[in-house]
Amino acid sequence: MESILNVSKIEKYYGNKGNITKAIDNISFKVNKGEFVGIMGPSGSGKTTLLNCISTIDQVTTGHIIINDKDITDLKSKPLEEFRRDELGFIFQDFNLLDTLTGFENIALALTIQMRKPNEIDELIKSVAATLDISDVLTKYPYQMSGGQKQRVASARAIVTNPSLVLADEPTGALDSKSSRLLLESFEQLNHEQKATILMVTHDAFTACYAQRIIVIKDGKIFNELIRGNSSRKEFFNKIIEVVALLGGDMTNDI
After folding, report:
1. Domains of the chain by range and CATH?
2. How many CA atoms, within 13 angstroms, populate the side-chain half-sphere of residue 218?
3. Contact 159, 111 (CB under 8 A)
4. How far apart are the C-alpha atoms of 187 and 155, rounded to whole Å?
5. Nearest alpha carbon to residue 240 among 220, 254, 226, 230
6. Where are the alpha helices (DSSP H) in the chain?
7. In the sheet where 19-32 sits, what is the strand order?
8. CA distances from 143 to 102, 158, 192 (A)
9. What Cα–Cα distance (Å) separates residue 227 from each residue in 164, 201, 231?
10. What one-character DSSP code corresponds to residue 173?
11. For every one of its 255 residues, what pLDDT tens digit does the chain have, with 9 covering 90 and above?
């Protein structure tokens, strides 16, 4: 199976000689094309630092991160910007939509930066909007949308360019339970129908149980790995809860 992401023996240190913090401690794993993988861990476990390194927001101290056969730890400035634009899609907890643009215009931004033709932009946005059930909000501004609609518009913006890897950072953190379910069902649909490769960081067991595989981080190391396989979502949720009970810390388990 083709590997989209290969994280190899990465470490990340913060601070100086007098006060060094090891946020990531020799982590290695792979994500294959078309996988939906979750990263879980209590507060301070290193999961956000890990995502920041994979997303090129931060740099590893040692080790390598290879995305779509390109070692991003070797990229500098302009090549890194181009890689981020063309290969990665981002979904944030706080939506990050521009208030002065409509839903359509927010989604179109990524395509415009890629210099796509207007008719192509229109077709791509209509297609992804239909998939995420947001066709009726394309002409609305963010202040006219619900939280769930905003997050689905943000998700459309992330995947409309067909990136190699979609990175989601606590995507349900600002949503109510109903909106969370709708968003996660959209993720499943994107994963199954469009073969989107998704890496999602969450501390929430309900959110995590929508993934196919869970990598659990503790104290900067991989603590456990759970594979859903043929388990139902409820069965997978229960497996996750068992690991959460062993971890303790700031993790939720509502379902």
Report:
1. 3-247 (3.40.50.300)
2. 13
3. no
4. 9
5. 226
6. 47-54, 77-87, 103-113, 118-131, 147-159, 177-193, 205-208, 233-247
7. 19-32, 3-16, 62-67, 70-71
8. 10, 20, 31
9. 22, 16, 9
10. T
11. 789 999 999 999 998 877 888 999 999 999 999 999 999 988 888 998 999 999 998 999 999 999 999 999 988 888 898 898 889 999 988 888 999 999 999 999 989 988 899 999 999 999 999 988 899 999 999 999 999 999 999 999 999 999 999 999 999 888 888 888 988 998 998 898 888 999 999 989 999 999 999 999 999 999 999 999 999 999 999 999 999 888 765 555 443
Instruction: Tell the burial category of 246 from Cβ atoms under 10 Å away from its Cβ (0-12, 13-18, 19+).
Output: exposed
Distance CA 208, CA 225 (A): 12
pTM of the model: 0.90
- Side-chain half-sphere exposure of 165, counting CA atoms within 13 A: 26
Helix axes 118-131, 147-159, angle to 10 degrees: 130
Q: Which amino acid appears at position 211 of this protein?
A: A
SS (H, E, C) 101-162: CCHHHHHHHHHHHCCCCHHHHHHHHHHHHHHCCCHHHCCCCHHHCCHHHHHHHHHHHHHCCC
Tally the C-alpha atoms within 13 A of residue 241's C-alpha that lie toward its C-beta: 10
